[in-house]
Amino acid sequence: MKEGLFWIIGKNKADLYRGNFETIACFERDAEHVNVWERIKQQRPSFHGLGYEYFPRGRVWIKNGTAIVFLNPVLLNPTVIKKIKEIFELPEKAEVISDNSVQNQKL
Q1: Is the dihedral of CA 51, 53, 54, 57 positive or negative?
Q2: In angstroms, rounded to a whole number, what is the distance separating the alpha carbons of residues 69 and 95?
Q3: Which of 26, 51, 73, 107 has its CA 20 to 30 A from that of 11?
Q4: β-strand pairing of 66-71 with 95-98
């Protein structure tokens, strides 16, 4: 199991259900989205001018051996959740929590 944060890069909500999206993940336990986004923008010129809140995002925490996925409500669909669990090597029983404080501008 891995901890860290992620963004889901897609064109629209329908694409998320179809699996037509990219996942950007960072496996640093205490990383903050705002700081990691600055590094990502250096590698991805097309993201210049976009804030870290532009794409829907989330975080994976491991607490007492249990994985918890916090994510934007727009990401609450089986396709996205399955992909996050694969990338972070999480068990099927990992808890998924919609974090309404996580806002985005893209979807």
Answers
A1: positive
A2: 6
A3: 26
A4: parallel
What ranges do the domains of the chain cover? 4-98
Q: What is the per-residue pLDDT for 99?
A: 80
Q: Are 52 and 33 in contact (CB under 8 A)?
A: yes
Read off the pTM: 0.90
Radius of gyration from C-alpha coordinates of the chain: 13
| Coil vs helix vs strand at 17 | helix
At 29 the pLDDT is 87
pLDDT less than 50: residues of the chain: none
The DSSP code sequence of 30-86 is T--HHHHHHHHHHH-GGGTT--TTSS-EEEEEEETTEEEEEE-GGG-SHHHHHHHHH
